[in-house]
Amino acid sequence: MMPSSTRKGVPKDPELADLFFKDDPEDVFCDLHEIGHGSFGAVYFARNSYSNEVVAIKKMSYNGKQTTEKWQDIIKEVKFLGQLRHPNTIEYKGCYLKDNTAWVSASFLLLFLFFHKKPLQELEIAAITHGALLGLAYLHSHNMIHRDVKAGNILLTELGQVKLADFGSASIASPANSFVGTPYWMAPEVILAMDEGQYEGKVDIWSLGITCIELAERKPPLFNMNAMSALYHIAQNDSPTLQSIEWSDPFRSFVDYCLLKIPQDRPSSGELLRHDFVRRERSPRILIDLIQRTKDAVRELDNLQYRKMKKILYQEKHNGPMGESQEEEEDSEAASCKMNSLGSNHSIPSTSVSTGSQSSSVNSMQEVLDDSCSDMTMMHPLDYGSTLDSSPHTKKVNTKHWDHLYNWDDGIHRDHRPELRPVSSDKSSQSYQHQGRFATIKSASLVTKQIHEHEQESELREQMSGYKRMRRQHQKQLIALENKLKAEMDEHRLKLQKEVETQANNAYIELEKLAKRHAVHTEKEIKTSQADEKKFQQQIVGQQKKELTTFLDNQKKQYKLCKEKIKEEMNEDHSTPKKEKQERLSKHKENMQHSQAEEEAHLLGQQRVFYERNCRAFKRKVMIKRHDGEQEQIREELTKKKTQKEMEHAMLIRHDESTQELEHRQLKNLQKLRMDLIRLQHQTELENQIEYNNRRERELHRKHVLELRQQPKNLKVLELQIKKQFQDTCKVQTKQYKALRHHQMEVTPKTEHKTVLKALKDEQTRKLAILAEQYEQSINEMMASQALRLDEAQEAECQALRQQLQQEMELLNAYQSKIKMQTEAQHEREQQKLEQKVSLRRAHLEQKIEEELDSLQKERSDRIKHLLERQEREIDSFDMESIRLGFGNLCMLDFPKDDYR
């Protein structure tokens, strides 16, 4: 979200709105004085109108090109500053928005400490390093990374408290993989972040090691090299070390420990705090003395400049602008010498990169304050100053300002005990009066030089800024593609998962339908069997009733025939008495009736046995039929499961092949984009190097042209010197001639005076002619010698420059070749890893398919086996029961159609 360019410009997003104050910063702050600037904007001294507190304001515009990127950088820095709560980090006051410009305010307890001509003492470096390590330990414990540790971003309070500054390049999360920082201080893993992966807080340890070398040697390693070439050198060569043998072994060990090439071998900030180098005994006033020494040096430099200006004004008034040129030249040389002893000859603004003043970090509160001359800064509680009264916010320049400009130390040693400070309203007025004497350790000449160099190096800063922007854009493109491919793969897997779930659901539904169909069929078979059994029973009962009826009818007929036969026999027998006949007939009837009753009972028994036996056999037949139906159903169910499983396996194989194809296509696209970005990066690096080479050659050509233009003047000066020497020689010869003539006149007779005078005159003329010839020869030799010397010097410079540029180009080509080879090796590893992953996944899939088929076959065998065993147990149990009931073996029973006996 971008804030609208309203008067206050507060964003509408509640989360972002909480990061900014809603007040108008032009109402909140007054007395603004510009004290430095960089590519992001300018830094001002200011006073809070409500509390009279003095603060530093950094104005950052998010208008113009890369608006969104600038706004995101502002948001990130404000969020980061808002989280800092540690005595070894700067104190953040708040941020305001006004007309597409962010006003970031911090406590203006900062003055600037420049190096002297000599490096810092080892104990001073140890004290500064110890304080910086405390701040880094705090950041790393909260998973933060500074990413731009260097001397210019380490501040000191007047009481010697070390503070970290410049969090414009910091990362709130660890690990990170952005290409940020200042080139000469960058760790190798930061330079190769996009190519080799992420990095953690160990990058700050590397930068701290480079900072120690910077403090010890007044410049970081590789500083005489082009910034881009330095990046390539850091990425592929060995770690730098301290050059001088005068440093102690603990200091050397500390630096070497910080600059271990492999990040995993590099110590943490907590481990370094236990190192002997930072734990050694030192005076508690060591940094305070350093600050005071620097204040004295800067005051002396300003006084030199003041005396020079005063002398120039005095000479213009009395002697003209050309008078006393020798004294002016001496003062100028003295001032220049003092400047060199104070200003760091390798100051690096965190927003620019060049051969002389180079850096790269963006959005730094203190980067502009050390843009061209500071490698350290310090905090001052009450005295703040600036020699820049040319600020647009400064209305006029008065003599009072010039007075305090060269006596800025008047109030530095105020008593800081709170019990001695005024607590009434006088405090505000006194504070304001003291703050009105705006002073700083940064000298006027250095501030002016800073602005001049900043304007000159805009092209170099823009080149490095563009390179960083390109690297970040490449990283964003890779991340965007990776996210896109990940989303595509997630969508693909979700689609496959849904297809698998659909297949499983369909299989489950089909099995449910089959089970229901089997249940319905079984129920129907049971009902049919019951009906058949009932019908079978009714059929047997009917046949037996019919048989019984026929049997009874036959018995009746037989009984009637037997009765008539007996009657006939009795009628023929007239001897037997009638009564006896009657008794015999009755007895015969009873016997027949008893016999028929037994036959009927026997028939009924046979029918009952036949009925029960056939019903039992029918039940056995129904049970066998039911068993056959169960076998058929389980075979159908298992066959269905096998078919479904085969379809599932075919689908999984198809899914695996489609996934494999997608993975190969995605890897190919990712690697293609990576190679395209690397080619674009290498092309840009090559173009930048060529542009840098051309610029160096143009600068050298301009220098040589100026030397050629200046040569006639130099030759004229040398000619005048030679002419003066010959004039002196002529004067000496003239005096000698006069003395000789006077002596000859005294010792020679008058008659010979004319001849002697003529001889002396001829001798003098001859010697002057020889002297004139020598003069012309000296002039010619001087002309030829100077021309030759200039040509040789310029040719030597051209040759040295060509050799240096050739070495840098070769270094760039070697670095690019290494990166290309590493990328190709990475692609080969990724391809092999993917092939291994695909092969392993396919093997697991095939193993899963085999295991599932084996499991399905085992399930089939087990279920059929269990079914057959159960059915066999049921039949055996049924047969045993049949045998117990006396029905014998019913398996061979045949059902007669007519006779059931």
TrEMBL record:
Keywords from the named record: ATP-binding, Cell membrane, Coiled coil, Cytoplasm, DNA damage, DNA repair, Kinase, Lipid droplet, Membrane, Nucleotide-binding, Serine/threonine-protein kinase, Transferase
Sequence segments annotated as region (Disordered): 317-362, 568-598
Family: Belongs to the protein kinase superfamily. STE Ser/Thr protein kinase family. STE20 subfamily.
EC number in record: 2.7.11.1
Top enzyme category: transferase
Domain of life: Eukaryota
A Pfam family assignment: Pkinase
Residue ranges, compositional bias (Low complexity): 347-362
Coiled-coil segments on the chain, per record: 464-517, 761-818
Species of provenance: Gouania willdenowi (Blunt-snouted clingfish)
Major site of localization recorded for this protein: membrane
Biological classification of the source: Eukaryota, Metazoa, Chordata, Craniata, Vertebrata
Gene3D superfamilies documented for this protein: Phosphorylase Kinase, domain 1, Transferase(Phosphotransferase) domain 1
GO BP annotation list: DNA repair; regulation of cytoskeleton organization
Location relative to the cell: Cell membrane; Cytoplasm; Lipid droplet; Membrane raft
Membrane topology: Peripheral membrane protein
Catalytic reaction annotation: L-seryl-[protein] + ATP = O-phospho-L-seryl-[protein] + ADP + H(+); L-threonyl-[protein] + ATP = O-phospho-L-threonyl-[protein] + ADP + H(+)
Annotated protein name in UniProt: Serine/threonine-protein kinase TAO3
